[in-house]
Each structure stands twice: as structure tokens, then as C-alpha cells.
Amino acid sequence: MILAPERMAPLEPLRIGIDTRQELIIYLHADCPVCRSEGFSALSRVLVSSNGQHIIATLNIVTGDLVSSGQIGLSEPAWKRLALKPDAHIRVSHPAPVQSLSYVRAKVFGHALDQQQLQSIIEDIVDGRYADVHVAAFITACGADNLSLQEITALTRAMIQAGDTLDWELPMVIDKHCVGGLPGNRTSPIVVSILTACGLTVPKTSSRAITSPAGTADTMEVLTNVCLNRGQMKDIVTRVGGCLAWGGSVRLSPADDLLIQVERALDIDSEGQLVASVLSKKIAAGATHVLIDIPVGPSAKVRSRASADKLADTFRQVAAELGLSIRLLCTDGSQPIGCGIGPALEALDVLAVLQSKPEAPLDLRNRACLVAGAMLEMADVTAPGLGEAMAREKLESGEAWDKFQAICMAQGGLKRPPVAPYRYNLTARDAGIVSAIDNRLLSKIAKLAGAPVDPAAGVHIPVKLGDRIEPNEILLSIHAESSGELNYAVGYLEQHINVVQLQPLSEPGP
């Protein structure tokens, strides 16, 4: 790392209080001597140094009175990364060239990248050397089918090596992941509760949402604390057999969380990066056996069985190269699972299933038992064909609910999900049979309503394919935490009213 030259006068740090997500931003006045002497212009990438700590940040030039010529303003992420104290002084200079950007350019022009090149890219992303625009270029260059099997394997290794790893010193640590694209489908909290009730060790780490209205970490966060450090995770898993934590809080595959932030903005989740993301997190979390759920449906992320088979084959080959035991499960992705779409609404579905309430979504219950049963068989807890029945028994007996409560209490307590104050109901004008539900439109509406940033926001959809609907019956409800976001989502819904399609009832015979 090249230090800022000592000849430059130090600057007084000023905490601006601007949230720039993961982007490191600094603010200098146009009259600042450093800007003039170093030739900095707006959006320059600069090396910022203080007390042995260094970051590379994007420069914004200020012409007003936000900062004086002797000050440097820092966004919240930049301030926290430098761990600045009020009496600190800062020097700013040109950074050394980021060599790995040449590898990104090579990938843009179709060249294959090797292990060293991908490792260099990932390390520079984790070290904060890339601006969001550079990360976006890398993600786009690797999109579609632009990564070979060898590159996906190398990318997975690079993402593992750039962060911390957990070792549970056990012959079997089991985990699962759903590739997504199916609204609702919040099976993980239920599955973890069932498996730990059966004596298995399940240190579940999950991501926040990428292109969906909620990830498992977002949903669990409305119920309990998910920001656990390594010591807390180990203690909780030792005491209760499992946890439901956000992977970003324990720096497992930290590049993944940085990539996810940009993937969410681009609404991109390509196959190669999907495989590297999933497997890097599972291996870093110490899993030895992993089940991958691949929903298949016309408006799911994976739209055909042929695409599912191709994705499954990639998972198998990369997992084999990395020594991970894996099982693939292709499931029905033709419609949402559960009724809630969004963190709090999905949490309510999870609680209803675990507590065996009469109103609990039957499809979420069935799917969770299917996945848990397959994992019980994978772990040799029961014979093939008997896993699903064992999973149902753990639910019906209340043992899974007891485990879930124990996990939540160990993580900091069980909270009540928030309720949105603003709602809009879409009702049927005529009678009919539900013939199609567009998963992508539902996800879009839930995100426009505020999910997952607003935890109570989302969509509640009580109908399923094949249901008979009467006039004025509710097809879906939009939930929002503000009237503006509700209006935004309703406006979009009015332009896409076919999100739930009804087939007219047959005319009665003579």
C-alpha cells in the first residue's frame, strides 16, 4: 500500500452523516489545496490515509459550505472503515493503479480468467479498491453464460479465500439453499427448526435479498437478531444445535455481500455468480452437506426443466471440485409459496406453520417438510422415502416450534413482526378460476411497496392456482409503510392487472 506523501498538509475529518451504502465517498472543497496540487477532479479515486488505516474512495467536489478548504468530509461507510476518532488527521493522495481492473477489461472482451486473476479481482473488491461502477462492470462481464466451469470454480475459491471460514470439527454439518425467484417460499427457518429438533447441526447463514422482496436474513431480522459474530454463532450452535444468521456479519465470503449490493441495483443474478455465491458461503460457513432447492416455473428465476438440469449439473461439478457433498432438488415454481411476500409478511407465515395454526399456508408447510425430509435422508437420519414423514412429525409434535423459539432466544429474543399501516386490496370483478400468477410481477410490486428495506411492506396473496374466485373477492393486498410507496406500487399494479389471471367460469348448460 502506498502512503500519502508527507509533504501534503493533513486535513481535518468531518463526519457528514450521509449513508452511501457500501460506497466509500469523501468530500473536498473546490478550493482545497490538496485538490489543486494533486489535480483531483470530481469522481477521482483517491487514497485516504489516517493513523495507519487506508481506504480508496470516490471524491465529490463541494462548491458550497458543506466543508471548508481545510476539511475532508466522509460518508458513513468511509468514516466507519477508517475507524476515525475526532482528533484524527487525514492525508489524501493518488492511489497506486488497481492492476486487477485490467483483468475485468479482459473479461469484458471475452477472455477467460484464471485463479490468480479472479483472486486479485475479489481481493481488491473486498479491500474497497473498486467503486460501484467497477463492480458493476465485473458483474456484467460475468453475466449470462460468460463464465466457464473452471472460472466458476476459481471464482468460488477466490470468494472463500477472501474471507473467514468456520470449522465445527464435526463429520457432518448440513445446510440448504434455494436459488430463489419464487416469492414467499420462506422454508429455511422451518427446515432448520425441524433438523435441529432431529439432532442435526445446522449453522444456517443466509444472504439478504438480491432481486427478491426478502431474503431469509431479512425475514429473520423482524423476528430476532441476525447480526452474530463468530463467537456468538459458535456458542449458539453449541447450545441449541443451530442458528439463523446473516452471513455478512461474520465476514464469510465478504465479497458476496459487496457483489449482492450491486447485483440488486442491476437486477442481475447470473448463473455462474449464483453458483459461486451459494457454494462459497456454504463452504465458508463450515457445511459438509448441502441441499440446493431449484424452483422451476414460467415466471420463476429458472423457467424450464432443461435450465434447471443445466444449473444442477454446474452445482454438482463445482461442488465436487471443492469436496462438498451436495443434493439437488427441483421443485414446483409455478406460483408463490405461502401468502406473504416481504420480510414481516413471510415471518407471519413461518410462525403460523411452526405453531400449526389452522390458517397456516399448507403449501409452505408441505414444501418445508419436503425439503427437510430430503435433508434428513441425505444425512442418513432416516431411510430413503421416510424423511418427509419424520419432518411432519416434528412439526405436529411442537418440537420444531420449541427449537425455533430456543434459537431465537439464544440470538437475542423473539420479536413480534411489524404491521404496515397502509394497504390496498385488488379484488376480482367477475367470478373465475385462478389460471396463472406472475411471480416476477408480484416481486416487483412488493419491492415498489418498500420491501425489503421497509420490513412491514410487501404483498399478501391468499389465492392459489385452481382456486374458484367470486366477484369482489380479494386477489391480493399491497402493504406499505408510507402512503407514497403504496401509491407507487398501486400505480404499477394498475398497469399490470394480469398479475393474477382468472379463467372465466363455463357458461351453464341449457
TrEMBL record:
<keyword id="KW-0808">Transferase</keyword>
<dbReference type="InterPro" id="IPR000312">
    <property type="entry name" value="Glycosyl_Trfase_fam3"/>
</dbReference>
<protein>
    <recommendedName>
        <fullName>Putative thymidine phosphorylase</fullName>
        <ecNumber>2.4.2.4</ecNumber>
    </recommendedName>
</protein>
<dbReference type="InterPro" id="IPR035902">
    <property type="entry name" value="Nuc_phospho_transferase"/>
</dbReference>
<dbReference type="InterPro" id="IPR017459">
    <property type="entry name" value="Glycosyl_Trfase_fam3_N_dom"/>
</dbReference>
<dbReference type="InterPro" id="IPR017872">
    <property type="entry name" value="Pyrmidine_PPase_CS"/>
</dbReference>
<dbReference type="InterPro" id="IPR013466">
    <property type="entry name" value="Thymidine/AMP_Pase"/>
</dbReference>
<feature type="domain" description="Pyrimidine nucleoside phosphorylase C-terminal">
    <location>
        <begin position="433"/>
        <end position="500"/>
    </location>
</feature>
<dbReference type="InterPro" id="IPR036566">
    <property type="entry name" value="PYNP-like_C_sf"/>
</dbReference>
<dbReference type="InterPro" id="IPR036320">
    <property type="entry name" value="Glycosyl_Trfase_fam3_N_dom_sf"/>
</dbReference>
<dbReference type="InterPro" id="IPR028579">
    <property type="entry name" value="Thym_Pase_Put"/>
</dbReference>
<comment type="similarity">
    <text>Belongs to the thymidine/pyrimidine-nucleoside phosphorylase family. Type 2 subfamily.</text>
</comment>
<dbReference type="InterPro" id="IPR000053">
    <property type="entry name" value="Thymidine/pyrmidine_PPase"/>
</dbReference>
<dbReference type="Pfam" id="PF07831">
    <property type="entry name" value="PYNP_C"/>
</dbReference>
<dbReference type="InterPro" id="IPR013102">
    <property type="entry name" value="PYNP_C"/>
</dbReference>
<dbReference type="Pfam" id="PF00591">
    <property type="entry name" value="Glycos_transf_3"/>
</dbReference>
<keyword id="KW-0328">Glycosyltransferase</keyword>
<dbReference type="Pfam" id="PF02885">
    <property type="entry name" value="Glycos_trans_3N"/>
</dbReference>
